[in-house]
Amino acid sequence: MTTSKNKVVIFLGPPGAGKGTQAERLAHEQHLVKISTGDILRDHVERGTELGQQAGPLMKAGKLVPDDLLMALIRDRLASMDSVRVIFDGFPRTTAQAQELDMLLEELGAPISAVPLLEVPDDLLISRIVERGRTSGRDDDTEAVARERQNVYREQTRPLIDYYAARGHLKTVDGVGTMDDVYSRILSTLN
Ligand code: AP5
Description:
Elements: E1 7-11, H1 19-30, E2 33-36, H2 37-47, H3 50-60, H4 67-79, E3 85-89, H5 95-108, E4 115-119, H6 122-136, H7 143-157, H8 159-166, E5 170-174, H9 179-190
Parallel strand pairs: 1-3, 2-3, 4-5
Pathway: Purine metabolism; AMP biosynthesis via salvage pathway; AMP from ADP: step 1/1
Binding site for ATP: 16-21, 132, 177
EC number: 2.7.4.3
């Protein structure tokens, strides 16, 4: 694998912060592959695969899917790539996932370029999710499940802020404002 071509960006932030929205645009404009574990899992649920049957009830309750299932998905995705030019959206979400990803990326010679953290106040996050729920068809876009997802984020994913800050990768971005404004802030932290 050619190391100089590799690029790895990890979008971190609570549910509804805009990770998927911003990752999609950055991937398109910088010719990167977006790997959204939420989208991959929802596809499995829709197709009724074995993974989908395990993940579906957990997602509907706002809980995380077990680390080993996630890591198998990520390993498969990365193994199929000629160069690792990716944006992770919604992954990693636990310290165990982050540690395993570090090992995998080291094997592939693909260091992390940056970890933008999108910061948005809790109440705005809930209103964005509930608003999206009107049209998204996502089982987890109700206020009650969104609040549970926030709790899970606080307990299991927030420790990754310190994890990536300690490694010098963290770039804090104000996620409030228009999508264009937020995107400009992300670009300026990446440059
Ligand atoms: P996942 O699909 O990753 O959901 P999430 O992290 O909860 O994130 P969301 O998709 O809700 O929000 P987002 O930050 O991407 O914001 P978005 O751009 O959509 O995960 C779902 C579930 O899958 C998990 O609960 C878990 O069960 C499982 N799972 C996934 N990954 C896993 C992992 N690694 N380990 C274990 N389990 C895992 O924006 C939200 C809304 O706001 C949109 O409507 C958007 O249009 C709007 N919006 C965005 N930006 C703005 C803005 N600037 N102004 C106004 N509106 C905005």
